[in-house]
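Render this sequence as a predicted structure.
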Amino acid sequence: MNSASPIVLLHGVGLDKTMWHAFAGELQSDWRALDLPGHGGQPPLRREQTLASMAEDVLGRLPDGRVHLVGFSLGSLIAQYIARFAPDRVLSLTCVSSVCHRTAAERVAVEARLNSAKVDFAASVAASIDRWYPAGTPASDEAIERTRRTLLHNDVESYLHAYAVFAHGDAEIGPELGSIRCPTLAITGERDPGSTPEMSERLAAAIPDSRVIVVPNARHMLPIESAVPLRESITSLIAESKGVTL
């Protein structure tokens, strides 16, 4: 069915709204993919950002009324912030490949990736591609190359400002997660090395009305390599939150 309330899709750091198009084209609902600040068609970022500042920008561009909010990676942190501080705008929340309450070791690892991007952006892009699409990935060569081109096309200053929010944003929203009141799904890949199943378990433990799905054998790029189980999980959450069958 076509929902009167749209599904809004938020991408990850260094990507843009086009990452969702093949995935969302199969959704039997109205959907909108938005570019995050400093990404895609949005103006470049020329000052440091916080999770709050990026979320306020996105909030100002949401469709009218309440939405089903789906965020991937950095987009997930932004979606959590909106669900917490603008609850009248969010019907359901899906956190795809999200970080949560990073451990000391996980903080060190993400800071190292941020520093690598500052020193050699092209090399950091290559490392991201290798991490997201290891040998044996079900993603097509075309999809991998499209991701690579999108990453390399970034305005580097914007990317670094956004990546700093990704690196630190879970600490900003973490203490607030218990106040999110909408139905929530945390979903990640079994083999995601950065947004681990343990992180999704932490997220679900922190948000009252939430559940966890771990997609077997999948890694980080669920909208590309595991589109079917992700789509089914999102539509099931929406159906349950509306009390209808999609």
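Summary. The mean pLDDT is 95. The chain has ten helices and six strands.
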